[in-house]
TrEMBL record:
This is Platelet-derived growth factor receptor-like protein. It comes from Maylandia zebra. The keyword Metal-binding does not apply. Residues 1-21 form the signal peptide. Forms a complex composed of PDGFRL, TNK2 and GRB2. SMART domains: IG, IGc2. The lineage of its organism: Eukaryota, Metazoa, Chordata, Craniata, Vertebrata.
Length: 364
């Protein structure tokens, strides 16, 4: 009886040890060390299918002594100290404040290596405050595109107590108010904690959120959610910290009458009737949005054989109730009319929203 008890106890202990070994082995398999042909061991981890396996931002700032700082949604840096950003990848695209491109700024340089791309900005100032982003470029043969799943951005403030507002290249800016979309008064700051307010110049009054359904974003400025004609006028922003308050550049807010769309074109001739030897003006007029450029193309009977003079101009006009419209005109002049000059005159007006073609016939 004792012999059978000892035998059963021995078998039970053996089974328990075998199960424990199998459990340890299974745990090891999850992060198993596998050996590549070169003899190096690599750790292989299971793939996460719920999206949590996506890597952190690849956009980093290079600090002194070879240290790196992974940038978040916003970053505050000190003006005057060179900035070096890196983004991992063998083919990287960058974006940064547009004025650095506008003036072909030599302080900015971008270099691509095998493993990362490097953006260097020397002697940064408050004016360099803005969004800096990088993204991986993927290619299929000769066609390349931005990988939106691997795009990283950080809004960088170059905090400057002497320049609470991001300096502007213009001392007076125009902001167009449209009834179908929010408007932005772009007084951005270099200190995100600064207390900022919007003021009308005449009559002098501070504009509060209750009056305009207004919000402030330090990366954009004051956002007017529902612009109306009464919001027109000259405005400025004021920022305050512990030091003396500072005033931004001034902004002229104009309400737009004409909605977005293809150009609205009219065509007229002067004088109304002509005969051989007379001079004639054909005027193509477009009413449109104040900040939308319009180009003109003419087709006329004597084209390529007869000289004509074409003059294009534009101006802003107020059309009652505080509405502002841009009037753009192209005038085609024919002098000393000949038989070849009689016929159909066509004007094509084109903008970023589309094009419109109108015509008129000039007969003897």
């Amino acid at each position: 009886m004792n012999l059978w008890a000892v035998l059963c106890l021995t078998l039970l202990v053996g089974e328990l040890q075998n199960g424990a070994c199998q459990q340890v082995k299974r745990r090891k398999d999850i992060g198993e060390n596998r050996i590549r042909p070169g003899g190096k061991r690599v750790k292989v981890w299971p793939t996460l299918k719920d999206g949590r396996g996506r890597s952190h931002s690849l956009l980093t700032q290079v600090l002194d002594k070879g240290r790196f700082l992974r940038l978040g949604q916003s970053t505050i840096l000190t003006p005057g100290k060179n900035m070096e950003l890196r983004c991992k990848g063998s083919k990287i695209g960058w974006s940064y404040p547009t004025y650095l491109d506008t003036f072909n700024n030599s302080r900015l340089s971008i270099k691509q290596s095998d493993k990362y791309s490097q953006l260097i900005l020397t002697s940064p100032s408050a004016a360099d405050t803005g969004a800096y982003s990088c993204w991986v470029i993927v290619c299929d043969g000769t066609e390349c595109e931005k990988d939106h799943d691997r795009a990283y951005v950080s809004y960088i403030y170059f905090k400057d107590k002497d320049n609470l507002f991001v300096p502007s290249t213009m001392h007076f800016e125009i902001v167009y108010l449209r009834p179908d979309q929010p408007a932005v008064v772009p007084c951005r700051v270099t200190e995100p904690q600064a207390k900022t307010s919007l003021h009308r110049e005449v009559p002098p009054v501070e504009i509060t959120a209750n009056m305009t359904q207004m919000a402030y974003d330090p990366t954009k400025g004051f956002i007017l959610q529902n612009p109306r004609p009464e919001h027109q006028g000259v405005f400025y922003c004021k920022a305050e910290t512990m030091d003396t308050p500072q005033i931004s550049t001034k902004y002229q807010l104009l309400y737009v009458e004409v909605p977005s769309g293809p150009p609205f074109v009219s065509l007229e001739t002067s004088p109304d009737s002509v005969r051989g030897g007379d001079n004639i003006n054909v005027t193509c007029t477009v009413l449109g949005e104040p900040d939308v450029d319009v180009s003109f193309t003419w087709t006329y009977p004597g084209q390529g054989s007869r000289p004509v003079h074409i003059q294009t101009s534009w101006r802003l006009v107020n059309r009652g109730m505080g509405y502002t419209t841009r009037v753009t005109q192209s005038i085609l002049t024919v002098e000393d009319m000949e038989t070849i000059d009689f016929g159909e005159y066509m004007c094509k007006a084109k903008s970023q929203h589309g094009e419109t073609i109108v015509g008129t016939t000039i007969s003897k």
